[in-house]
Structures are given as structure tokens and as C-alpha cells.
Design goal:
Length: 508
Amino acid sequence: MIRHDVRVHPSSDRLPRSEQLAWKIAEVAVDPVEVLPEVVDMVVNRVIDNAAVATASLLRGPVVAARGQALAHPYRPGATVFGLPAGERFSPEWAAWANGVAVRELDYHDTFLAADYSHPADNIPPVLAVAQHLAERRGLSGHDVVRALATGYEVQVDLVRAISLHKHKIDHVAHLGPSAAAALGTLLGLPAETVFQAIGQALHTTTATRQSRKGEISSWKAYAPALAGKVAIEAVDRAVRGQGAPVPIYEGEDGVIAWMLDGPDAHYEVPLPEPGEAKRAILDTYTKEHSAEYQSQALIDLARRLHRERPELADPERVASVVIHTSHHTHYVIGSGANDPQKYDPTASRETLDHSIPYIVAVALQDGEWHHVRSYAPERAGRPDTVALWRKITTAEDPEWTRRYHSTDPAEKAFGGRLEITLTDGSRVVEEIAVADAHPLGARPFAREQYVAKFRMLAEGVLDDAEVERFLDVAQRLPELTSAELGELTVVAPDGLLATVPVPEGIF
């Protein structure tokens, strides 16, 4: 890897393009390096993972609304939309939009956490949509899709390693716009100049505040990454037509770093593969076994173990207090350090409960599980004994957990915490967990078998058995798919299922 020095430059410097971060990212995108077999395997896993969580969300309100918007934009050759027949095609940016919302709605797919946060599988919907749309015209294949996704993961993960957006309350999708644009550059074999302009446009148009993940969290949490994917497609389209971006987009004296991030004196070291170096970043990412914010994954696993071993901890009459000692991020974003009263509100939205570690730990202690539907049901959140236990749970930042959260050593990096539970009889229970069971270093790491099982579980009651098997066959053959077969890389709901939920009307 090459660690690139990135800082703000006055316009008078006339910073050469070759020294700009957007250009260096573009060079990664156009590098024809082949994809390692283990990276190919993981790309397939994540395509299956995305389809799994999208399938489970097909009838949820935000997904229905986004699909309705895509329905208003039929197009040929076009791209497919999850749930609809594969023969129905839509404008690729709107297909990416609808599919991106479906993938993100349950907050249940992969993650990478470092200086900032990300769900790098958000790169998949725009890449697949453009690949399906241009498959025949460009002769694109599954192999091209794999190469593009390796780029998308690499760029987003490397940006997340180096540049903190959340510190300045900028939403993390500002790293997704550039990564998706770079991925599309790889997919289409575009020249570096075109990719450079697309990256700049995508970044410029995907910077927004983190209020989408603060306070009363709404359905926009699922829409934000879908918009970044849609915007990236549009940015690439404009760049291909010869249209430019603000330059330099990162380093300019009125650019993103100077005015949205660390300011004129900022200094970052962004790691990117050197020419000819394989793009391995996807191997450093991890998916979710549970449908909740990633920092809750390990704590859910600990709570469900304590449910089995210490059932008395589920009884609020026996528990005086629970303190979760954890990282800065967990405390201030999904813990009591956020100072969001909504995190303790039994009438809060699903999106808010998903970002409340006190609620999540309370339910996992009582139920010994975490379910993407049952655990968020209004009647579950409002159960009196749950509310009583929930309001006894707080978080506290622990410098050691924060250090491990930011460690670059995979053996040290951790997203867990320590539970210190005081019982009403004065006794204490202290237990900790570093990584989730499904993490590569966890008790039960996810491999192909677990990704397939997750798809089957989430497709149960939604897709016909034959459709489940058809999709799994196509997805697992992704590296060998022909142009004609790329359109089969979708899930089709049984007749009548989507019609059970009314599509809200809008402008289109």
C-alpha cells in the first residue's frame, strides 16, 4: 500500500492532478490487476448477503415507496428491481435507488469501521444496475462485476481508514459516492480522466449532515446510501459525456476538507494499493448476524449467552443497574452518551431502536435472541418489564475499548465492550466480549455456508423455494456469468405478494 499525503492547498498552488486524491483513486480504479480468488469468493458472499436482507424488506414502507419511484421509470435495456419480474427493466439509476433502499432498510448487511463508518456492500446496487443495463452493449460479464466490486470495496474501506467524517457530523455516505463512481469506472473500463471527474462530482453531491442518524431517526437512514449510489451513476454518466467536477475536490481551499472536515490545516494519510497490487479490502470487512447497528453485534452475542447462563439478569426486579463500558463511538452514537431521549422511548421508530444499545441489550438479555422483526415490534418495545430493565442500562466510554476500536492490528481491533451488572442483592456480574461471533475472529465466523443460511432464513415466507434455489445458483456462479445472465441476478417475488402492500402515489 502507498500512504498518500492529503492536505488543503491554496488555489495559487495549482496542485497537479497527479497529486490529488481523486486522481489517485481513479488510478486504482483503472489498474487492470486481477482479483484474488479469496476476494472473488467474498464478493459472491456479499452479493448473496445483500439479496438476503433486500428480500426480507420487500414489503416494508420505505422499500415499497422507493420501488414505486423506480416503477415510474421503465427503460430498455435497463436494470432489474428486487421483487419484480426479471423481464421488467428500469432506468439504472432508479433501479440502483430502489435496490439500495431494500438492501439498507433493515441495517443488516456488511460493515467496516475505522476512522469513519461504512457499509461497503452499498456499492453493489449501483454496480449491478449499470452492469445489467449495459451488459449486451458493452459485453459485460460477471467477471467485470467482480472486478468493479473489488474496486468499490477497496476505495471505500481505504477512505474510511483515514478520513473521519462523523467527527464533523458529515454522514458516512460521503465516502460511498466516490467509491461507487470508482467502481463504475472499473466496470466500464473508463480512462482515468473520466473516473477522476466522476469521483469529484460524486463527492461534491453526496456530502450531507449526520442528522439522518441522530435523534428521531427516520426512513431516510435507508435512503441516504441509495441516493449516493444513484448520484454516482449520474456523475459517471455526466463524466462520460465530457462534463467536469470541482477541482481539486478534496484539497481545494474551498473544498470538502477545508470547509467540511478538519479545515485548512488538515492532514490525512490515505492508504491505497500501489500499481499492480491486489485489491484486498473486502477481506477486512464483516457482515451482521443480527439486524442491528454493528457495534451492537458482539454485545447481542454476549447478552444472549448471559440469558442462558444467568437468567436472573432478565428480571428488572433483580437488576439494580447495567453499565456497558465500550468505545467512544458506541457510547456517543448508539449509547446513552448520545443524550437522545428517543433511545429510551418505547414508542420510538425501528430505525431509532436499531441505534439504541440500551434497548438492544435489554431485549437480548430477556429473549436470548435478536430477530429482525420480533425484536423491534411495538408490543415488544413497550413491554413493561423490558422498559424497566432498559432504563437501568447506560453506557460509558472506556479508553481501552476506544483504542481497540481504532487499532490497525486485526488481532486487537474490537467492537465490543464490558458489561458490569449490579444486582439488587449487591452482587455483581462482569463479562466482556471483543468481537461478534460472526466476525472473522469470532466464535462462529461467517463463511459461504452461513451466508447461504442467512439468505434462506430471510427468504422464508417471502420467496418460493424454487426462486431461492435459482437465485443461489446464479449468485454462486457470478464470476462466470455471461452478459445474458447478469439480468438473472435478482430475486422475484411470487405472484401477488407485492400487491398486498399499496404503493403510495407521488409526483412521478
